[in-house]
């Protein structure tokens, strides 16, 4: 066990140090990419084709990750305001405004080093229309190449062969030739297969870690802790041996906690008695992340499953990257991301989480500026309540805009919700 100090002491395990090294290393590579003659690709988390981009030696930059990292460091508020001064509405996604504001302030990344101009923007459209508009603005700023993979929406809740073939055709005929031309590197499908082998190993361990929360007490928090766990698999590291090593280390740590009957580790140390088990829908708030988490663990509330840990891949329902069918596997990955699922499918998933993880109820954190997650959330809440008989609750924050985090309001709603769960238990016992 290690302890780092950044204002307040934060308890960290070895896996967290490994992840920190991965993140810092990628930002360092981005800072020196052009002087080393390397090309840079900017892409998004849902449906990202990290393994394919590695085949062309691109250094990968993810604007969402820059925004949330700046939010964690409490830098994003000024960036959001900068974008609004330039004419962007308060209703625009805060990730977008944080990214644009960062560019307006000199494009200095979260680690204090300049981020390079991208050589190509790669968008796998997976259910979030905002991503397309975001990249239009970035392309206007940098005048760089853009490649878009159109991914059909799962309107009927299933992936058909035609949908998969449509995406594969785009990868073969449009995306790969563009990546070859921009990078100057010839595509090697065997190289892609090697990366997909690593991806599948990491995904196995990630799923094991997330499903460890079915135990009582849960050795992990699958929301506040889970957003750390998904980091390497959902970003610039999936497919690398370093990510595989990270997940092997994480699995060993969680297995030790499970064997010892321990609950999650929080930034303030070991969590006490597990009193409430929750499923959470929606992204977290990053600007007050530690304060938000504290409202849960001080009450003995642990999140045993969450949907935000599925935005970059719903691996716990069986999908794995498959090196024997590399391009088809990439297509199915894009098609299956959480943001590409319809509301009935999401309701089924949330209901299954409440039941399989023996949760006390569903909590929704509705994000003011994130329409992809917020649309239909109240309907989801009522549907899951009706199916499971477990109470739901609703809080409101934002991604990286600190103006929309009211600690008093959130705390009051959470306390009322925990009280509701306790009263329901007492009535059931009586």
How would you describe the overall organization of this protein?
The chain is α/β, with parallel strands linked by helices. It has a domain at 2-174: Rossmann fold. The protein has helices at 14-32, 50-54, 63-72, 76-85, 94-104, 129-142, 161-183, 189-211, 226-229, 231-234, 241-259, 289-297, 326-335, 343-356, 371-374, 377-388, 407-429; strands spanning 2-6, 8-12, 40-43, 59-61, 120-125, 145-150, 265-266, 269-270, 276-281, 301-306, 361-367, 392-397. The protein has a four-stranded parallel sheet, with helices on both faces. Strands 10-9-11-12 form a four-stranded parallel sheet, sandwiched between helices. A two-stranded antiparallel sheet has the order 1-2. Helix 12 links the parallel strand 9 (276-281) and strand 10 (301-306). The longest helix is centred in the middle third of the chain and has 23 residues, at 161-183.
List the keywords:
430 residues; Rossmann fold; 4-stranded parallel sheet; 17 helices; globular
Query: What percent of residues are in strands?
Result: 5-15%
Instruction: Briefly note the CATH topology name of the domain at 2-174.
Output: Rossmann fold
Care to count the β-strands? 12
The backbone outline, from C-alpha atoms, is globular
**Alpha plus pi helix count:** 17
Estimate the mean pLDDT confidence: 94
Spatial sequence of strands, sheet with the most strands:
4-3-5-6
Helix/strand structural class? alpha/beta
């Amino acid at each position: 066990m290690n302890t780092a100090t950044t204002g307040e002491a934060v308890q960290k395990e070895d896996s967290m140090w490994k992840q920190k090294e991965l993140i810092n290393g990628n930002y360092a590579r981005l800072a020196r990419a052009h002087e080393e003659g390397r090309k840079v690709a900017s892409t998004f988390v849902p449906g990202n084709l990290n393994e394919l981009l590695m085949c062309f030696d691109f250094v990968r930059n993810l604007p969402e990750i820059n925004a949330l990292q700046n939010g964690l460091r409490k830098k994003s508020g000024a960036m959001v305001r900068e974008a609004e001064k330039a004419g962007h509405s308060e209703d625009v996604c805060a990730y977008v405004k944080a990214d644009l504001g960062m560019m307006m302030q000199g494009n200095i990344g979260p680690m204090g080093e300049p981020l390079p101009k991208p050589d190509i923007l790669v968008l796998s459209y997976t259910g979030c229309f905002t991503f397309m508009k975001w990249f239009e603005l970035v392309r206007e700023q940098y005048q760089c190449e853009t490649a878009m993979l159109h991914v059909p929406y799962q309107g009927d809740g299933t992936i058909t062969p035609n949908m998969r073939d449509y995406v594969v055709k785009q990868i073969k005929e449009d995306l790969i030739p563009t990546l070859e031309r921009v990078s100057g590197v010839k595509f090697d499908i065997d190289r892609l297969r090697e990366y997909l082998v690593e991806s599948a190993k990491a995904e196995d361990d990630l799923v094991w870690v997330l499903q460890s929360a079915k135990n009582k007490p849960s050795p992990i928090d699958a929301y506040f802790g889970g957003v750390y766990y998904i980091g390497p698999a959902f970003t610039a590291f999936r497919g690398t041996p370093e990510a595989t090593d990270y997940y092997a280390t994480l699995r060993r740590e969680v297995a030790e906690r499970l064997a010892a009957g321990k609950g999650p580790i929080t930034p303030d140390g070991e969590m006490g008695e597990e009193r409430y088990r929750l499923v959470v829908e929606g992204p977290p708030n990053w600007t007050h992340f530690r304060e938000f988490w504290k409202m849960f663990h001080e009450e003995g509330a642990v999140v045993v499953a969450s949907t935000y840990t599925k935005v970059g891949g719903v691996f716990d329902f069986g999908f794995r990257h498959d090196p024997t069918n590399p391009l088809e596997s990439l297509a199915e990955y894009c098609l299956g991301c959480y943001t590409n699922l319809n509301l009935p499918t999401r309701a089924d998933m949330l209901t299954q989480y409440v039941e399989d993880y023996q949760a006390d109820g569903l909590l929704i954190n509705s994000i003011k500026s994130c329409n992809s997650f917020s649309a239909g959330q109240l309907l989801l809440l009522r549907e899951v309540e009706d199916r499971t008989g477990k109470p739901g609750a609703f809080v409101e924050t934002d991604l990286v805009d600190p103006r929309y985090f009211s600690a008093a309001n959130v705390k009051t709603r959470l306390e009322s919700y925990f009280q509701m769960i306790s009263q329901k238990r007492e009535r059931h016992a009586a």
